[in-house]
Amino acid sequence: METEQTEQEADQSYLREVANSEGLRRPSMAIHCLHHLIHRYLSATMPEDARMATGSNTPIIVYLSKHRDCDVFQHDIERHFSITRSTASRVLTRMEHKGLIRREEVKRDKRLRKISLTTESWGIVEQLRDNAAHMEETLLAGMSQAQIQELLQSLGRMRENLISTGLAGSDRDQGSRDASRLGGVGEKNDASAHARKRFSDKARGRDEKE
Q: What domain range is 27 assigned to?
């Protein structure tokens, strides 16, 4: 508990330092600071019933809720989050013990066990959605629809600028980012690795010419 409080105090000190400095004049620092604030707001306002779903459980719960109309198996979780079989098995077993998911045999192949959310998890999904919607309203309070659209366009442009370098991955890498939250090790992104080598080779070629 003391460690958690110390980390929160450190975060608050960091955010105050950034806010009081010229850092917020830089868009990247302003976005970074806002990301911290959003995360802390969502943590502080998370409904009590949803707290049983730890950080490693939430991405899987969200994934299952989005794929409610199709059968999901452990190998789908492994592939989407780029985690090992042992990691997926461990996390899913814990979630099953918590009553967050159920695993059922399928008629066509009794070796497979379909994963689905329990009634309790669906309640958590609704609470998380409501909490996120309330945060969004708070975040955008006082802004006109035109300002919001302009903001989204600017953020989209910045996102595309970084993705176009080939060094920052893409939205398809979300599973690998979520893997770190699950305690697993994400697989390397071959496209990003190739792009890094290509940019490195170009830089080396420029240096040799000079």
A: 1-45
